[in-house]
Design brief:
Order of helices and strands: HHH
Number of domains: 1
Number of helices: 3
Structural class: mainly alpha
Number of strands: 0
Shape: elongated
Distance between the termini: 12 Å
Length: about 90
């Protein structure tokens, strides 16, 4: 059984996943729903920290999604290379 991963495809898949999660976060902020999610998450983890979600900023959201996607691609690519090296 071939256990090798294609580094390019793995990088794109992880990049899309990480970028997509951050795109969803930006949408939640834009609709004003993010603060409730943060409050719920802190409550569910039994943590008390003053976290305030700021107003939506389109340029910040675009940078967030692009950087997250790029970092996800790099991490996915590196993971696949390491995986292939360990399974040769």
């Amino acid at each position: 059984m071939n256990q090798h991963l294609n580094p390019g495809k793995t990088g794109l898949a992880v990049g899309k996943l990480v970028g997509g999660v951050h795109l969803i976060w930006a949408i939640l902020v834009a609709f004003g729903w993010a603060q409730a999610l943060v409050n719920f998450s802190l409550w569910a983890h039994m943590v008390s920290a003053p976290v305030v979600v700021k107003a939506f900023d389109l340029s910040a959201a675009v940078v967030l999604v692009i950087v997250a996607t790029a970092v996800g691609c790099v991490i996915g690519y590196a993971f696949a290379k390491i995986w292939n090296w360990l399974h040769r």
